[in-house]
Design a protein that fits this description.
Helices cover 21% and strands 28% of the residues. It has an 8-stranded mixed β-sheet with strand order 3-4-5-2-6-1-7-8, with helices on both faces. It is globular, with a radius of gyration of 19 Å. The chain starts with a strand and ends in a 7-residue tail after the last helix.
């Protein structure tokens, strides 16, 4: 059987990877026989109308366009083996991997050199609003730069919010605009067959989940987010407010709240928030959450 190509979608926390993948899946002509692997500190936000069925273990989703989506933990090789076991039900011809926001593209490419698969191309999204600030951060600047350096291709996101954003001249040959990422023009081969360990998340980050225990007002929620330490780089999840259920997304200091229909939310997406922060500041961040976020419980 022919080896299956893996296309990687990378980029720092909140750059828009999930948005891009949802756009691909909901396009007029999505790639057939596609598998999507999601490796992140939280679950992919797939629109409920695109989910056909769900496996008993909650990790494999059948999509209405005939594709399959898997949520994976730290072990990419386990997920790839699981996909091979699904080949009878889903005759997969291409894998789209959404990388963790703190993953090294080069390490992922090596991990994708796995029996039955090969790494094809790595597209890294660059957040036009926050990239320059991230590069100056003493904790994560190295990672933001590393992801751009190791990408095969770069896609600038959020240009509507930062239309004057440009990348350094040294990256111009990598930049692509509105790409069809499955075009043969982006096919790549020859990536090293070296294997690495199963350390799929980059060290230096930690996360915790806070299930909500009481309804909160929008104003109070915004105040809580404004008061978060600068070492909290990402917050996402569902929140029950006096105005109904909302999907919360916070990247750096930018907060968005989107009202959602309760009926479209699965049990695993009930009111709770995922916080991603610098591991060195874990104790301080968790102390802050315990003191300030009293309508949630710290897991």
């Amino acid at each position: 059987m022919k080896n299956i190509p893996i296309t990687i979608i990378g980029g720092y926390l909140g750059a828009g990877k999930t948005t891009l993948i949802n756009k691909i899946l909901t396009s007029d002509a999505p790639l057939s026989k596609l598998a999507v692997l999601v490796n992140d500190f939280g679950n992919i936000n797939l629109d409920a109308r695109w989910i056909k069925d769900k496996s008993p273990n909650g990790r494999v989703f059948g999509l209405t366009n005939g594709c399959v989506c898997c949520t994976i933990g730290d072990d990419l090789s386990e997920a790839l083996e699981m996909l091979r076991e699904q080949l009878g039900e889903f005759p997969i011809e291409h894998v789209l991997l959404e990388a963790s926001g703190v993953a090294s593209p080069q390490k992922l490419q090596r991990q994708c050199s796995y029996p039955g698969y090969y790494p094809r191309a790595t597209f890294v999204l660059v957040d036009a609003v926050n990239h320059n600030k991230q590069c100056q951060d003493k904790f994560v600047g190295y990672l933001a730069k590393q992801q751009v350096d190791e990408a095969d291709y770069l896609i600038a996101s959020k240009l509507d919010l930062a239309p004057n954003f440009t990348l350094h001249d040294g990256y111009k040959d990598k930049v692509v605009h509105e790409p069809n990422i499955f075009s043969p023009a982006y096919d790549q081969h020859g990536v090293s067959d070296a294997t690495v360990g199963a350390d799929f998340h980059s060290h230096g980050f930690a996360s915790c989940v806070l299930p909500q225990t009481a309804e909160v007002t929008i104003d109070n929620l915004k105040a809580l987010c404004d008061a978060l330490p600068s070492t909290v780089h990402r917050v996402k999840g569902y929140v029950k407010t006096e105005q109904g259920l909302h999907l919360l997304q916070r990247v750096s200091e930018a907060l968005t709240l989107e009202k959602v229909d309760q009926e479209t939310v699965t049990p695993s997406e009930q009111p709770k928030l995922v916080f991603i922060y610098i591991d060195q500041q874990k104790a301080a961040v968790q102390q802050h959450l315990q003191q300030r976020w009293q309508d949630w419980r710290l897991n």
